[in-house]
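Hi everyone, sorry if this is the wrong subforum. Our group has a chain we'd like a structural model of before ordering constructs, and none of us has done structure prediction before. Sequence below.
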Amino acid sequence: MELRQLRYFVAIMDHGSLSRAALVLHVAQPALTQQLRQLEEELGAQLLHRSAQGVSATDAGRLFYQHALAILKQVADARAAVAQSTGRPSGSVTLGLPHSISGALALPLLTAARARYPEITLQLTEEISGNLIEQLKSGRLNLAVLFDDGQPGQFAATPLVEEDLMFICRSGSALAPAGAAVSLRDALASHLILPAQQQGVRPQIEQVARAAGLSLENIIEINSIAILRSALLADIGATLLPLAPLLADVQAGTLRAWPVHSPQVARKVTLCASKNIPLTNAAGAIGRLVREVTEELCAAGNWPGARLAH
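Answer:
Right subforum, don't worry. Here is the predicted structure as tokens:
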């Protein structure tokens, strides 16, 4: 198996046809077809379905595509690590952010990266945390912001912030607490909309609830912040989330937020990297910048509900 075969296969997948991939790669189509056939023979599996409309991936093809992307990225990172100097890092860095973090961190980080490291191309990807974990394991991400649920870490992790979870619902909702705060017991007894198990804040809520002798029942599971927000505005239920991803609605008065007590619930946000894949100088520089930007946001009060973790 050769790297060019991986590049050819990825190009065919990305462009949806052999002819378009051949044009982009500046390779004759018969030669491209031959390389694809050799790759399939070596793997012992058909990777693509061919038709007059183009190509589509088989199940084996979709699986191999993810591995090919990860391998090509690691090769590019290795070349960049050798070529770049520590004084002037350059190259491409891919950072993964959960949906509920990107609103607070993405734009300030992009602005700081452009000013500090103009020769680094910072690529941000926004996913649910479970997808970020898999991409970081495979090497498709250099870095990812993840949540620490207290379990032994499989990544090299640097603490960033702790965020308090708030009880949030539509203004004027019948679910709104009567007081200035709400107990965790009462919050869990409400109609809650939360991410699915093992996603986002859910593991932390489950862990704190078990320790307090409480349980979660009748949960509506939504993994998208945008859809969850729409459900809150439609008064389908309430949620337990940090303030940041819904701050604009809370400030506008369409949503309201209450602190949770007895006990409080907070999540720890960490910056993670693979223990097995070395960081390039550029990725290391972006990692340090993430920590700097986080400190500045907290000091200025621009990451509501967050405090620096130690």
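For your construct planning: The chain has three domains: 3-74, 88-162+268-308, 166-264. The chain is about 45% helix and 25% strand.
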